[in-house]
Design a protein that fits this description.
alpha+beta, endopeptidase fold (from Nostoc punctiforme), 8-stranded antiparallel β-sheet, two-stranded antiparallel ribbon, 10 helices, 35% helix
Length: 304
């Protein structure tokens, strides 16, 4: 009985870890996932980290970037980044604010939200160590994304009415935060006419252009069994074969970055991290080492 209870708790926690971004805390399972509690010193470091990120964006000479942060802890799946949005220099909320999908827990529905870069960085499970990935889009690619992202009607047309943290990338039944972003990119780059079936046509274009998110291995039949009883997790949009194989295919920042890298010549990537002592800035498409460890070509900025 003790083992069964422990396994059930672990299964729920694993499913909860798939949640990308939400608006307020919900009990100890944190399925409606707000930022973790942080000390004044940690908040100060994260705000300084965000300021350095904005300095990188300003220095780039670009106007649009896909930004991803470590939010919910997905390390058990070997995943660093859980949540992504589009950062726009011309965002009406303020320069480089991030337009993104979040789940409004009180309303039990997804919403679009423009958030300043400091707030975006603060939305993490681990205030002691943070990671941020910035994919800078060249002018020709950005020229289509910017008006599409700032067109409220079009951006909302791509917003599903029902949220699922593990939404299948080729089903319009649900949507997670990263899926809204990749569908926005598809609708802008195709480009697609703004009609009621915009989501379906964006997904068709993505499939035709080899968007292929890697499966997330869940490793337990128990997870599949309890999924229908966990808020914001659904399995009825996933193929039966995937369920039997014990994996979900869902949009995550890594799959979006891979797609952009393959499709957009001239796209550049900056990865940044911080711990209690320093910020590390890494340029390139290879992944930074775990533990915020600098490589030989990385820039290190010490906190005073």
């Amino acid at each position: 009985m003790i083992h069964a209870a422990r396994d059930f708790a672990c299964a729920v926690a694993t499913l909860a870890a798939l949640t990308c971004n939400a608006a307020s805390p919900l009990a100890s399972l944190r399925l409606c996932d707000g930022a973790a509690a942080s000390t004044v010193q940690q908040q100060d470091r994260m705000l300084r980290f965000a300021a350095l990120a904005q300095r990188e964006l300003d220095a780039s000479g670009d106007t649009v970037a896909v930004v991803s942060r470590n939010g919910t802890d997905l390390s058990r799946f070997g995943i660093r980044y859980s949540h992504a949005g589009v950062s726009l220099k011309a965002n009406r909320n303020g320069p480089w604010s991030v337009r993104q999908l979040y789940y409004a827990c009180d309303e039990r529905r997804p919403r679009l939200f423009d958030q300043g870069l400091p707030g975006f960085v603060l939305g993490t499970d681990n205030p002691a160590t943070g990671y941020l990935s910035i994919v800078l889009l060249p002018a020709d690619a950005a020229a289509r994304i910017e008006p599409a992202a700032l067109d409220d009607r079009r951006a909302l047309r791509l917003l599903a009415s029902t949220y699922s943290a593990n939404a299948h990338p080729f089903s319009v039944r649900y949507q997670n935060c990263n899926q809204w972003l990749i569908e926005l990119l598809a609708a802008a780059w195709a480009p697609l006419e703004d009609t009621v079936d915009l989501r379906a046509r964006a997904q068709q274009w993505l499939a035709e252009n080899r968007y292929d998110p890697a499966p997330v291995q869940v490793g337990s039949h128990l997870l599949m069994f309890i999924a229908p009883f966990v808020p914001m997790i659904h399995v009825d949009d996933h193929p039966t074969a995937d369920q039997f194989a014990l994996h979900f295919r869902t949009s995550l920042p890594d799959s979006i970055e891979t797609f952009v890298h393959e499709r957009v010549p001239g796209a550049r990537r900056v990865e940044m991290c911080h711990d209690a002592q320093r910020v590390v800035v890494h340029h390139g498409w290879d992944r930074m080492a775990d533990g915020c460890t600098p490589g030989p070509a990385d820039t290190v900025i010490d906190f005073d």
